[in-house]
């Protein structure tokens, strides 16, 4: 098991995904400072119950390591950070400390092997490629692996309009092909197209 500071938020971070966060609570500024000094990630988890501000929120059991790639302090008491998703983890034990920050003992989940996309997913790949072309490239970590099942499923899960709990369910899916199939089924049933 690995000790890890947790940051419960109202968003889901996928492996290789990029999220920008505005940190202003003292407990999380302290956490970010510790992570920057030690060059260690923290754990980003969707809030299962509670709120981002105030008392410690209850996180979902599966989260993603968040590696800080950029940071700045535009004003005293505010840090803007950009994080990139690393490996997924499972929370085994949680401790809420006096300042309402959360520390956990976690187990890292196995990295999914790279798997080439087979037939039947051309529409999903095409939608992702159109979305990537329209959006700024710095929103996505390089390299873009549009032939890899896990990478395509994760990017579509980040970009498609859906509830965070649905994103969380996709993050928790250990089989990348099943994750992509679930997304593909939604795309086909709704005939969703990027604007």
Would you write up a description of this structure?
The chain starts with a strand and ends in a 5-residue tail after the last helix. It folds into two domains: 2-108, LON domain-like (Archaeosine Trna-guanine Transglycosylase, Chain: A, domain 4, Roll); 122-190, BPP1347 like domain (LON domain-like fold, Orthogonal Bundle), CATH 1.10.4060. Strands 1-3-5-6-7 form a five-stranded mixed barrel. The protein is 31% helix and 33% strand. Strand 6 (78-96) and strand 7 (102-108) form a beta hairpin. Helix 2 (122-134) packs across helix 3 (149-159) and helix 3 (149-159) packs across helix 5. It is α+β, with helices and mostly antiparallel strands and 195 residues long.
The CATH topology of the largest domain: Archaeosine Trna-guanine Transglycosylase, Chain: A, domain 4
| Strand residues, percent | 25-35%
- Share of residues in helices: 25-40%
Order of strands, main sheet, comes to 1-3-5-6-7
CA-CA gap between termini:
44 Å
Gross morphology: globular
Q: Which parts are unreliable, with pLDDT below 50 for 5 consecutive residues or more?
A: none
Question: What's the level 1 CATH class of the largest domain?
Answer: Mainly Beta
- Name the structural class: alpha+beta
Integer-rounded radius of gyration: 17 Å
CATH architecture classification name of the largest domain? Roll
> H/E order of the elements?
EEHEEEEEHHHH
Q: Domain count, please report it.
A: 2
Separate helix tally: 5
CATH homology superfamily name of the largest domain? LON domain-like
Major sheet attributes: 5 strands, mixed, barrel
């Amino acid at each position: 098991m690995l000790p890890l500071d947790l940051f419960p938020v109202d968003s889901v971070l996928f492996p290789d995904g990029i999220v920008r966060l505005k940190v202003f609570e003292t407990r999380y500024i302290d956490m970010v400072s510790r992570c920057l000094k030690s060059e260690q990630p923290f754990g980003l988890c969707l809030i299962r119950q509670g709120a981002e501000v105030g008392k410690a929120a209850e996180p979902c059991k599966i989260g993603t390591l968040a590696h800080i790639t950029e940071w700045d302090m535009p004003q005293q008491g505010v840090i803007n950070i950009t994080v990139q998703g690393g490996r997924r983890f499972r929370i085994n034990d949680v401790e809420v400390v006096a300042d309402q920050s959360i520390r956990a003992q976690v187990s890292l989940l196995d990295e999914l092997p790279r798997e080439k996309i087979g037939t039947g997913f051309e529409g999903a790949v095409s939608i992702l490629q159109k979305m990537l072309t329209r959006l700024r490239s710095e929103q996505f970590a390089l390299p873009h692996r549009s032939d890899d099942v896990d990478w395509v499923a994760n990017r579509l899960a980040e970009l498609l309009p859906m509830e965070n709990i649905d994103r969380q369910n996709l993050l928790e899916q250990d089989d990348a092909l099943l994750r992509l199939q679930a997304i593909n089924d939604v795309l086909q049933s709704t005939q969703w197209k990027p604007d």
